[in-house]
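Bug report (template v2)

What were you trying to do?
Predict the complex of my protein with xanthosine-5'-monophosphate.

What happened?
Run completed; filing so the output is reviewed.

Input:
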Amino acid sequence: MEKVIVLDFGGQYNQLIARRVRECHVYAEVHPYTMGIDKIKEMAPKGIIFTGGPQSVYASDSPQISKEIFELGIPILGICYGSQLIAHTLGGRVATAPTSEYGKTEVCVNTKSELFKNVNPATIVWMSHTDYIEMAPEGFTVTGSTEVCPVAAMENPSRKLYAVQFHPEVMHSVEGMKMLHNFIIDICGCKGEWKMDSFVEKAIEDIRAKVGNGKALCALSGGVDSSVAAVLMSKAIGKQLTCVFVDHGLLRKNEGDEVEEVFGPNGSYDLNFIRVDAKDRFYKKLAGVTEPEKKRKIIGEEFIRVFEEEAKKIGAVDFLVQGTIYPDVIESGLGKSAVIKSHHNVGGLPDCVDFKEIIEPLRMLFKDEVRKAGLELGIPEHLVFRQPFPGPGLGIRIIGEVTEEKVKIVQEADAIFREEVANAGIAKDLGQYFAALTNMRSVGVMGDFRTYDYAIALRAVHTADFMTADCAQIPWEVLQKVSNRIVNEVKGVNRVLYDCTSKPPATIELE
Ligand code: XMP
């Protein structure tokens, strides 16, 4: 299979580069720059990309690369730090730039270069550097420059070495994708036949090779990531996999049954499925607790305890499967293991249970790629495109103490909101939307009676990355209908409020 290696020098966009290569339909893997030449030869990539990185190439402890790599005859593209490293290693000169460049910058490129074929002679790119290449190494031609950066691009086509100071992989580089395509397809000579189904096939092969006759355990939440990971594992190892679905009683209406329908004994997959009804345990632990962080911790801990008990019942399990995806991987890929978000659905690892290894088959994928893989695996669309749901579930959508009665109220209100959003056909425009239960009760009148009931808060946001979010402008008619239905149909609610705050200063969830 054609592949490109992305050599990681600690930059921010390393996985994004790999993703862009995959968008050219070529398989890409990110590896630490310390990966040996022999390993590279063994992998026989069609091309190598050096990523950016935070250091100065001339600093004493900065990542370096053996000259040997340039003798392999494999095309190399250096980006930012990677470009400076090529210059530095091959006898050019790198220095602190008199003027740093950050952000969108116009670069003039030589369109006769194969890298810049069909690119405008003056094009906008994303720059982020304090050092620059002062002088290109012998044998290199300068093919791009900006007002303050004399060598914004350089190349030695006969040795198939290319370097750009800017970041073609980020969206702000208007024609960056064209440049990467030129490199991958024209310069490296890739055919570009890789598709997500090849990822799925390869992942299945790798899992089989790794697990052998061993047993694997997966914490299934019903969310996109753990569902895709579970199905992938089940295709690879069938009944050697057990999925444990902890129903903590804080799921959306009918959610537990829906998960069981897909993954349970009457579902479509070959795996062992255990649904643990742990509702009462969770409610008991949460009784009287009002502080949000405390609630989160209790839910996370209890989740682990339940999971651990199930694992022990199954007996010797060799592998733990996690649906970690790239945005969850906090460390850069410099050979360190990933830190898994402790607040994530799996809630941290049960360290009292012995596992030989953790398998994270989706580690290198972005969310939309996980969804593509999910579709490829035949997972129903309503599961693949479902909105994110936090691990602590409705526990953090009920302000104050969690009780079974409150869970029921928020489940019903949320189901109505979701139904009406679907009826209005606006679901795909929203990043996340849900109902939450405020801890506020107020006076109302129903029929001829005074009521003193809860207020439901509706929340709907637009967001690209869930780090920031804008309040979504849901059509008034939809809000009115939802509000009418909730107060009429959900006992215990007499008021509906719409949350108009953005994030920051608010967060998406209420707790
Ligand atoms: P906030 O509330 O921090 O949420 O703006 C950002 C995104 O993260 C989700 N979220 C969680 N997901 N476990 C999760 O798996 C959690 O504990 C958790 N808390 C928040 C939230 O739903 C939103 O998509």
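What did the reviewer find?
The longest strand covers residues 93-109. Residues 292-314 form the longest helix (23 residues).
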